[in-house]
Amino acid sequence: MIALVIAGVTTATVAYFSDTASILGTTFSSGTMDLKIDQDPRSATYNWVDGFDISSTDYRTYLDTTIGIGYDNFMAQAGLNNLKPGDTRVQIIDIANDGTINGNATIDLNRTSGWSDLAGVLNFRVYYDGDHNGFFVDTGLNGTVDQFNGPYTLGPMIGESVGEMNTTASVKIEWSIPTTAGNSIQGDSVTMNAVFGLVQTP
To answer: Record's superkingdom (predicted)?
Structure first.
């Protein structure tokens, strides 16, 4: 004989305490890299722009009306005119990382005019001051404009999210003509672009 035993099951309702905590409205956004250059040649004043053309009518007007030094005076002060063998001139250019992401500043020099004897001897050397404190480091970039084949890394630039004080850097470009240049460069000219960049660091 087989006995079938059916056991009764009693169900009870259990009510444990519970609670939730939520983070709402989570938005992910990308940072920015925004390189600016100071178009004001005066050392104590800044006018940050994306770029400018020294030879343009707009920049001539800016020099004449906003700064009041005149284009010819600017060219003379910048040491761009009346060059001769043995001359060495310097220009300091301020750049700024107006974005939020750290990066490395870069530079390249590109000749935009036809080749000339002056282009073959005019030598450029580049220095970098990443902290904008007046202490320049020789980058090792040194040669005629046609020997530049960059872009070349200058050094780090801190984004605004890290600290406002470190977003500005200075680039010093020194140009010179060797004493051995000779008469062949008389009356020559060369036009070039200085192209600055900002590349994200890992």
So the answer is: Bacteria
Q: Which stretches does DSSP call E strand in the chain?
A: 35-38, 48-49, 88-97, 103-111, 123-129, 137-144, 152-157, 168-176, 192-200
CA distance 195 to 15: 70
Phi and psi (nearest 5°) for 73?
A: -65, -40
Quick one: 28 exposed, middle or buried, by C-beta within 10 A (0-12, 13-18, 19+)?
Answer: exposed
Q: For residue range 110-145, what is the model confidence (pLDDT) as tens digits?
A: 888 888 899 999 999 999 999 888 999 999 999 998
SS3 state of residue 93: strand
Per-position DSSP letters for 26-37, written without gaps between them: ---------EEE
- Give CA separation, 60 vs 65, 81, 148, in Å: 9, 16, 28
CB atoms within 10 A of CB 164: 9
Between the alpha carbon of residue 196 and those of residues 68, 177, 193, 199, the distances in Å are 27, 24, 10, 10
**What single-letter amino acid sits at 130?**
G
Sorted by where each starts, the structural domains of the chain and their CATH numbers stand as 35-200 (2.60.120)
